[in-house]
Each structure stands twice: as C-alpha cells, then as structure tokens.
Design goal:
Blueprint lengths: L1 E2 L11 H16 L4 E5 L2 H18 L5 E5 L7 H4 L2 E5 L2 E8 L2 H4 L4 H12 L8 E7 L5 E3 L4 E5 H4 L10 H12 L3 E5 L17 E5 L2 E5 L9 H13 L9 E5 L21 E3 L2 E6 L5 H11 L4 E6 L25
Protein name: Agmatine deiminase family protein
InterPro entries: Peptidyl-Arg-deiminase_porph
Keywords: Hydrolase
C-alpha cells in the first residue's frame, strides 16, 4: 500500500524530488507483489495507474497496480494504513485511529483513508474493523509468534491515548493483535523524528529469534547515550523460551542535515521486507554499502534492493514509513 504525495501535502515544494522515490518503490514491489495505490488527485492517479501497469506488463512482472482515489493529508501509509491480523484461518484489517503522532499535524483525511479504500471495494470481502485506540503501524514490530516490540516513549505518550496506562495498552494489544508478550524499550532516539521514537526506525525483527538495531559508535554524537542504553535493553530481552535474542547492529550513517541545519532521521532500520526481497533505504553516504552487506547477510534468501531515500527524510521518514503490507488475497489486481 502506497499513499501518493500530491500538491496538498507537505511535499508540495519537492514533488519533483520525492515522486521518483515513490515510483522506484512501486516498481521494485511490482516485481514481487501487487500495489494498492491511492492518491487525492484523480488525474495523477490515472497517469500512475497507466504508467505502472504498462511497466509491469512490459517487464512481465507478477504485480499489478490497484488505483483508488482517496483524500489524504500526507503519505505515511505505515501509520495510517490498516494493520492486518490472521484470525481463525482468515484475515481482518484493523482500522486503528490515527491522529498524526499526537496531533502534531493535520490528520482527518488520513484517519478516514482506510474507510475510503474499504468503501471502494479495495479490500474485497475482508472486513475492516474499527478500533477506538490511536496506534501507528510504525510503533509496533511483531515476530509473528505472539511477541511485540515497541517503545514506551511512543505508546505511553499522553497525546495518543491519555486515558490508558501501560497495563491497559498491553491488554488492548493482546485482545486486538493477539500479543502474548510485549517487549518495551525505554531508550532510543533519533534527531528529527516526529513520531516519538517509532520502533521501525530503531530495532526490527529479522526472524523470531533475531533483532537488528541502530547502533551509534561515536561517543561524541548526540545519539550515543540513548542508543547505547537501548542496546543494553535489547541484550536483556529473552525469547518466549528463555533464550536470548541474536542481535545484529546496523551501520550508523553520517549525519545528514536539511537546508536549515536540522539533523534528519536517517536510519537503515527502516527497511521493507516483501515477497522475495528486502528494500533498503540508502542515503548517498559511505555507510550505504556496509548496510546493504549487513542486511544481505541477515536475509541471504532474499534479493537486497537499495532505494535512495534521501528525499524522504526531508519530511522525517523513510522507506518502511511510506508503505504498508496487505495479506495476499485481500486485494485483487
């Protein structure tokens, strides 16, 4: 799922830079999967549908584009998209509330986007189930076996669900997502991050027993203390069977700043796993090659595909942030 940037978003002044990134992501995904694409501007949506489906047919790719007109404030599909769960041999799409990371930006169109897609028939017979709880997909990481990884900085922020404490949140996530265990990170930080420390920029499950994470080796860097404390927390975590996790640190990219001198949240943890491949954000810095090699070693059975995401981090997100996976069979192309 991709929510396309348009002139009504914060991307308006840099559409010429950011649209090629979205096109690159879409074309890479079409090599393996279908793409559900929405855009507020119908004419642009029709152009994209023709262009991308022509590309897929010409290349003999298995994927097709399903294009849906829908209003949107922004493009962060990971956070406003539906979260899929498997239940009793079928799927449900959970429509959690979205309030732009605690009301930081306009959000009403994004919060209604999943309903637009469902009403259009994009999800077929798969039910879209509303959940009266603010939750972004980027704030949780699942091992697929009942364990969730998250950050207290994000989920416990009062601007999201002020009436719920940690125990209440754990109960809700157990009821809705089937979480049997929740591992809370109390440390972890990226400068320029608007999300209150989303887990998908910091630490990711690579397998049920393997976590990769952002590590900062530079003691003079502003991130050093927080990320070192996060590493210590990860070392203390155990799997459900009591065994420690395999841990792999990811390279630390050179600092990247915007035109105003603000540091941007470049991270290699924001990769996207798809069928047969892993799309990896790169930023035009010397550490890109090491990051690709590291993730290639973690996922030896998948193709490693770099995507230049330097334009995306100008709005403080990256590759995983602009995508949301939907189970096979839900969307028919």
């Amino acid at each position: 799922m991709l929510t396309w940037p348009h002139p009504g978003t914060d991307w308006s002044d840099v559409l010429a830079d950011v649209e090629p990134v979205f096109l690159e992501i879409a074309k890479a995904v079409l090599r393996f999967e279908h793409v559900l694409l929405s855009c507020e501007h119908v004419v642009r949506l029709q152009e994209l549908e023709r262009e991308l489906n022509h590309f897929a047919r010409e290349q003999g790719l298995p994927g097709r584009v399903v294009a849906v007109p829908a209003p949107a404030n922004d493009t962060w599909a990971r956070d406003h998209g539906p979260i899929a769960v498997a239940r009793d041999g079928s799927h449900e799409l959970l429509d959690f509330r979205f309030n732009a990371w605690g009301g930081k930006f306009p959000w009403e169109k994004d919060n209604a986007l999943n309903s637009h897609l469902s009403n259009f028939g994009s999800f077929g017979k798969t039910p879209l189930v509303p959940v009266d709880f603010v939750l972004e997909g980027g704030s949780i990481e699942s091992d697929g076996k009942g364990t969730l990884l998250t950050t207290s900085e994000c989920l416990l922020t009062p601007s999201r669900n002020p009436a719920m404490d940690r125990g209440g949140i754990e109960h809700l996530l157990s009821e809705t997502l089937g979480a049997e265990r929740i591992l809370w990170l109390n440390h972890g930080y990226l400068a320029g991050d608007d999300t209150d420390s989303h887990i998908d920029t910091l630490a990711r499950f690579c397998d049920h027993d393997h976590i990769c994470y952002v590590a900062c080796p530079d003691v003079g860097d502003e991130h050093y203390s927080a990320l070192a404390a996060m590493e210590e927390e990860l070392q203390q975590f155990h799997q459900a069977d009591g065994q420690p996790y395999r841990l792999t640190p990811l390279p630390w990219p050179d600092a990247i700043h915007d035109d105003d001198g603000e540091r941007l949240p470049a991270t290699y943890a924001n990769f996207l796993i798809i069928n047969g491949a892993v799309l990896v954000p790169v930023y035009g810095v010397p550490q890109d090659d090491e990051a690709l090699a590291t993730l290639g070693g973690i996922f030896p059975d998948r193709e490693i595909i770099p995507v230049n995401c330097r334009p995306l981090i100008r709005q403080h997100g990256s590759l995983h942030c602009v995508t949301m996976q939907i189970p096979a069979g839900v969307v028919t192309a």
